Amino acid sequence: MYLLDTVISIQLLAGNQTVIKKLEELEGPASISVINAGELLYGAYKSKRVNENIAAILNFLERIGIVLKKS
Q: Are 28 and 60 within 8 A, CB to CB?
């Protein structure tokens, strides 16, 4: 499994095609940590487009998955 950081997650949310293609090339699932999810949501709440950004992040989290603890 690959654990993505907040910067990569932001690039994915922004639609960065280079990052998206790299993610598609990975051999295995990718997720983010619960801390990264919190950072994304914190940023959304501090943004000018709160509702739009939160909706995008929630959609992203449904697709990517969140690691809550070490397996």
A: no
Q: At what angle do helices 34-45 and 6-13 cross, to 10 degrees?
A: 50
Residue 21 CB burial class (10 angstroms; 0-12, 13-18, ≥19): exposed
pLDDT beyond 80 at 70:
no
> Mean of the pLDDT values across residues 27-37?
93
Domain annotation for the chain: domains and CATH numbers: 2-67 (3.40.50.1010)
Q: List helix spans (H) across the chain.
A: 6-13, 17-25, 34-45, 50-64
The pTM of the full predicted model, rounded to 2 decimals, is 0.86
